[in-house]
User: Fold these one by one.
Assistant:
Number 1:
Amino acid sequence: MRIPRTSTTRRPGAFIACTVVLCLGACTAAGPSTSTVDEKLLLGTWKVDLRPLPDADPYFQEFIVTSVQDGSFSGEFYGTPVTQGRINTDWGKLRIAFVTADGSGAYHHSAILQGARLEGLTNSTGREFLAYWSAVKQQ
């Protein structure tokens, strides 16, 4: 049986070179960033939009960060104290996670600072929902 000659069988070196370049590009794009982010950017009052759907009217609450120290933070979200507030800046972005609670159970929150806006998720274990939220810092 004869194998038809394609561009990759005629020039295997070109195919291998392209594959190596693509793999190296993917590896460097996924690698950790060497830039540092100041975790104190989180301090202050944030206006949180908790609308349930993109086309719903805005529903605003506050996220107040009162202290930031050594990868942890304190404050309140939606009028409820933050517990287990954690900050990660190891990948060149400010990422946070924290827990709040009410009578229905725990709410696990996480967010990333994208420019001047926090983009977050809330997982309610008691009410069984996952919600998107965004926040901008108030001046």
Note: The longest strand covers residues 60-69.
Number 2:
Amino acid sequence: MARRESLIEGRWSVVEAELWDREALDLVVPAYIRFDRQGLGEMQLIAIGASIDYRVEQRDGASVVEFSWDGFDEMNATSGRAWARIDGDTMRGKLFVHHGDESTFVARRERGVQRVSASKATRRRGRPAARTRRGRRGGVASAKASPGDRSSPRRGAAALAAANWHREEDAQAPREVYEFRIVLRDVAPPIWRTIQVPGAYSFWDLHVAIQDAMGWLDYHLHLFRVSRPDTGDAVQIGIPDDDAFEGDEPILPGWEVPIARYLTGPGAVARYEYDFGDGWQHDVTLEAIVPRRTGIRYPRCLAGGRACPPEDCGGPAGYENLIAVIGDPSHEEYESMLEWLGGRFDPERFNAQTVKFDHPGKRWALAFGETAQNRRRGGRRTPKRR
């Protein structure tokens, strides 16, 4: 006898909902529910990305699917349940958000689904938004870029649907957590963090987690350098440079590359560079792969030591000078340095419990020019210029 699950295996587009219009449903990516084998799958609608656990039953001569789901709505953990009656290539049912909304919905089976890649999506030019030292999450390009600086490439920006955190294989990925130790090079005493991230993360997602855990403000470009597990060849991952010279090493788009492809087991190391002007180098070491724990929100910061250096302080050498100056009230630059720092800076201060992580999809949208809030209003965000 055929498995009942085979009746619905595949991807279904959510085309209608009582509570949300189509623009809201497709806020981040075109809304869908995907049913895989073994009763697992995933759901993406509005700003919710979730894993699902489903079963199919026969009721009154009709096939009915029931599923529970668990995931995130932007930065907030969320969960719920749903049911739907299956009629050929159409399902009609109701979705419930725990302690929240409920709505009827209609979904239709997709045929010949193709994934949109960043390189083929519509591109638009524009620089990311500026932000003050007190601001958060504006852009990824350097404020001090010059024509010869690597931090000023013209970058293509893909539509949100291309972002890798909604990639097709998420539901197939094991529910594992990757534990990394991040150490800032050429600084003593060491500045370090230990973080855990979902095993299904892309390199863009990991970049966002590193930025937030360290305390960087994501003003500048970044680059991962890793080795192919099979050949040892060097690979660069980050934001592709549309104006790269012939013969330059290609840069793979981080939102399209899962970390599990190159960081395959404990001991694997990536070099992470942030701000090509100041040249902050980090060693990112995979220390463990552990099961995901129920009730725990990921990513999370487990531990760390010492404060992140201030942005644009001149790299390790500039930071060493900064520490020397603020440690000597008699220094001629003492007052001006404190003023530049905003009044004070404690290099020893760090508390892992205060680390807040942005949703990587939200950061991607902010960096490349369109916010979820403006999409809800039907408008677009125009990147500010420095």
Note: Confidence is low (pLDDT under 50) at residues 113-173, 370-386.
Number 3:
Amino acid sequence: MATEQELQSLFNNLDRDQDGKVSINELFLSPGLSAIILSETNTTSPQELLSRYGLVEDGSITFEELKEVVEKANNLT
């Protein structure tokens, strides 16, 4: 389980271009961090994360969307 602050830190590390979104490409660039995100959201791949939660419109996820997904997985403390 992650705190909101820990989740924000992970998100910021993944958001390499600092555009406020993490693209599927950015998830693949950092396997260690993406593994933590996938664990916190109970998904097995970046594609599953985006498709399971209806985030496939632009192929990226914002922090608020990620936070909502982690909350739905009951992993936000």
Note: The first strand starts at residue 21 and ends at 23.
Number 4:
Amino acid sequence: MTVWFTDAAVAAWKAEPRTTRGGQPPTSTLAIATALTLRAVFRLALCQTEGLIGSILALLGLDLAVPDHSTLSRRAETLALSPVRPGSPPVHLLVDSTGLKLCGSGEWLLEKHGTRTRRSWRKLHIGMDADTGRIVAATLTTSNVDDALQVSALLDQAGPVASFTTDGAYDQDGVHGEVTRRSPEAAVIVPPRSSAVPSDTAERAPTQRDRHLQMISEHGRRRWQKASGYHWRALVEGDISRFKRVIGDGLRSRTDRRRETEIALAVSVLNQMLELELPEYVRLV
């Protein structure tokens, strides 16, 4: 592992003097975010994260404060992070969701003693920019929340869209209406359910969904997928796979606000990794 500390990072490690009542925190938001980011990447417990940061600072010979594990847990509850940077609007948004298990004492008992426990889950909803591969929107909900109810929150983060592509679970009038209200020219590419029927205005003023149904009826679902570009949705499934391979398939935090911080840091890490991997093209002539 190679770690660089710039002069700006060293200078910003210590928290600025507090102007309100209360104790002075020894470390800044940058220090807490750095520690929690390393925790997400290496899948560490908070005590292990404290030890890793202390080792790194000692090896670098930096006389900087090491945030302890209780401080990391407490500050994660209110950590202010920069919002996900959207792509060049309008974006071609690919949306999907996946389950993340909650790691805790139940998981330890299962591993140590084989005790059977009832596992709890949270649902991660992500929106990906098809052009850049970056995750531009993410929300975390309980496992019983309908996917379609998160469309508004995802669009708030992603901004204007040129197209909105997702699976059949989002085949609802509210989804089509929300996307069209925000981006009237956007293509809504959602496969209709097998039991779907045309709208009452299909003859005189067909909606996008009506046109999808007509093409599927005339040419079949596979031809529709190719013509509409629905196959691009595989990219967001790849992003979910990358999330679970790099970050893991579980959440280590114990409260919902800390879990949201954990997800925000994980998304930032994956986007930074992607940017480092992509080639830069320079025109010579």
Note: The mean pLDDT is 89.
